[in-house]
Automatic annotation (TrEMBL):
A Pfam match: adh_short_C2
Protein's name in the database: SDR family oxidoreductase
Protein family (similarity comment): Belongs to the short-chain dehydrogenases/reductases (SDR) family.
Amino acid sequence: MDFGLTGKRALVLASSRGLGLGIAKALAAEGAHVLLVGRSGDRLAENCAAINAAGKGKADWLWGDLAEDNFVQSMVDGVKEKLGSIDILVNNTGGPTPGTAEEMTAEKLDTFFQSMVLRVITLTNAFLPQMKEQGFGRILTVASSGVFEPIPNLALSNTLRGALVGWNKTMAAEVASFGITCNMLLPGRIHTDRIDELDGANAKRQGKSLEEVRAASLKTIPAGRLGKVEEFAAAGAFLCSVPASYVTGTMLRVDGGASRSI
């Protein structure tokens, strides 16, 4: 299938590693010009070099920290300089610290709301006018399977990512007539550094070894294994594609069948 992404311009947040980088690579492999964003210039430069060496799409990068007040303006300025405008926006953010609902303080809620919700919404609003003018846009927001089934000890993530669900569905209806789709991609247990960190935190909390915690988690996944970043990214690339033009307002789970909800 031709995804129709040759020459399309994509801004991919939090793409120096993990799921964001996987999506950026998948889009570039389909011929897109991707703009990677993260806090490690060295890592971003290395990733861009690898993508450009592959030879199909192109890659540039911007330093950016979602926690900074000037993040949105710096992205708008960077896109104008390096891409002109964008066709695809991939909203991806780091996850908050683990913890229970009782441990959520006002300070923690405010801190992570800024980086995980407010920046995502205001950045998307900044690019919507040009997408409307172009008559084409793909907005993909990476969240978590916790929006369907809250994940133990991830109360902040369950709460804040859940807020994006209502926002995405509302926006999808508002902009569909302009050729813009808005979808959410929900990872289950995809093997990234973040999963290793969370398993380590759970092992410490439960007084078990990392191997015991990992083995127990695999028993809950019908596929019997952790997902691969490339598998997750392929689903993201499709949702950003031209053939996916009639798919909007949806949440796609990539979890190996782990979620039991319908």
